[in-house]
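Students often ask why we bother predicting the structure of a whole assembly rather than each chain alone. The short answer is interfaces. A chain on its own may look different once its partners are present, and contacts between molecules only exist in the joint model. In this exercise we take two input lines together and write out one structure for the complete complex. Read the inputs first and try to guess which parts will touch.
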Amino acid sequence: AQSVAQPEDQVNVAEGNPLTVKCTYSVSGNPYLFWYVQYPNRGLQFLLKYITGDNLVKGSYGFEAEFNKSQTSFHLKKPSALVSDSALYFCAGFTGGGNKLTFGTGTQLKVEL
Amino acid sequence: DAGVTQSPTHLIKTRGQQVTLRCSPKSGHDTVSWYQQALGQGPQFIFQYYEEEERQRGNFPDRFSGHQFPNYSSELNVNALLLGDSALYLCASSFGRGVEQYFGPGTRLTVT
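Now the answer. The structure tokens for the assembled complex follow.
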């Protein structure tokens, strides 16, 4: 069985400060991991993915994520948060053989002035 | 280049009724997946269609069924609606077994 966990329901950060949204995974085989963002009453927007290779993945809007196999983590990061980054963030993954995504429960990011 | 489109945007149905949701994939994509996102939850995989056949299925009852047409568009049908079926239904498209899935804006279904 595969699962993705987001241990924080909400993360608050001041604008201009670095942000981290945590994700851990439990999948058999080599994981494919993703981050999506969802704004109110909208669908999911793709931010970035890890398939193989470099453990630091760069994505859209200045976001990046670090894949850590030993800690089974895939944390989302941004060096300097913007108020417009405030949204619901989902970590998701699957293993090879099928691209059925398993999602975490989401983390609400709030960036304040 | 049109992205993934879904219709309708919102829908209100009564318990016991049947509903059909529609999805058109991103241009060039041939695989459509459906997800259910209940309020405050992450999306849950319902099923995936490729070459007009159901290729994978999540843990959803047979009341949930689907179809894919030759032009790759897809429908999700839910019979005998329950209050618990109220959710945002998301469609995602990809090419083949491509890892990157593009999501539509979703259909908000409310069952009363």
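Check your guess against this: Chain B is about 0% helix and 50% strand.
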